[in-house]
Amino acid sequence: MKITIAPEILENYPGTHIGWLYACVVVEEKNDYVEALKKNLPRIVQEHGLFKTEELSKHPRIANWRKIYSEMGVKPSSYRCSLEALLRRVIKGENIWNISSVVDCYNCVSVMTLLPMGAYDVHKLKGDLTLRYGKEGEIFLPLGSGEEITVKDTHIVYADEEKICCWLWNHRDSRLCAVTTDTKEALFFVDAAQESDAPDVEKALDLLSCHLEAIGCKVKAKGIINKATPQALHV
Predict the structure, then answer these.
(1) Which pLDDT tens digit goes with each residue over 7-51?
(2) Numbers of helices and strands, H then E, in the chain
(3) Who's near 166: CB < 8 A, 6+ residues apart?
(4) 152-158 long-range contacts, Cβ below 8 Å, gap at least 24?
(5) Among the four 14, 83, 87, 160, which has the fewest Cβ within 10 Å?
(6) What is the residue range of 113's domain?
(7) Residues 104, 107: Cα–Cα separation, whole Å
(8) CA distance linking residue 52 with residue 55, whole number of Å
(9) CATH number, domain at 111?
């Protein structure tokens, strides 16, 4: 499987750096180690200087993602990047996500590093995976919903050779390739859309590796694709 950033994405967002990580995973409904990570998130978010949801849009990273979402033709206050959605929940003190050990783990690392993350079940992917613009008429099937979303050519998506895997870059995953308790191999992604965030992508991959290994997963390969190296062969 090849992992690629389409030329059109790099033309419009030349600072894009996508970290990827392949791991054999053990997915549990709940894990004590991950629950401990969750408890530390409010403190970590405050250390980032984020105390109120109203302040999120002023943070440079969130502001940049909001700009990108506007350029995709959607209202960023209604369609948020995954990172902003997670931060809002932590700041509000709401019941922090409880999906599965692996998904909860990478969501924690996303908050810790202030970089959006996602993951797919490798055995549910078909062919190569590409970050690209949508094609008119494509349909996206969102996780946790029975609805169908019609994709526009201004929308940035992760897609394999037969389906949209994530809509609006990192807004929402597809129910067709989501990580579940049956998943044995997963492919994780770390998103950075501007050059200034690039140094943190490698750190995020290392941190994700550490926490995944701590819950029984085995990291097999990882790397970064960008303008200089827009394609990687997933091993």
Answers:
(1) 999 999 999 999 999 999 999 999 999 999 999 999 999 999 998
(2) 6, 12
(3) 118, 157, 158, 172, 173, 174
(4) 152/73, 154/71, 154/72, 154/73, 155/72, 155/73, 155/74, 156/9, 156/68, 156/72, 156/131, 156/132, 157/131, 157/132, 157/133, 158/118, 158/120, 158/129, 158/130, 158/131, 158/189
(5) 14
(6) 2-233
(7) 5
(8) 5
(9) 3.50.40.10
- Band of residue 156 on the pLDDT scale cut at 50, 70, 90: very high
Tokens of residue 21, six digits: 């990580």
Kindly indicate the confidence band of residue 234, based on its pLDDT and cuts at 50, 70 and 90. low
pLDDT, tens digit, for every residue of 69-121? Answer: 999 999 999 999 999 999 999 999 877 789 999 999 999 999 999 999 999 99
Residue with tokens 């409880």: 98
Count of domains forming the chain: 1
pTM, two decimals, is 0.96
Sign of the Cα pseudo-torsion (140, 143, 148, 149, in order): negative
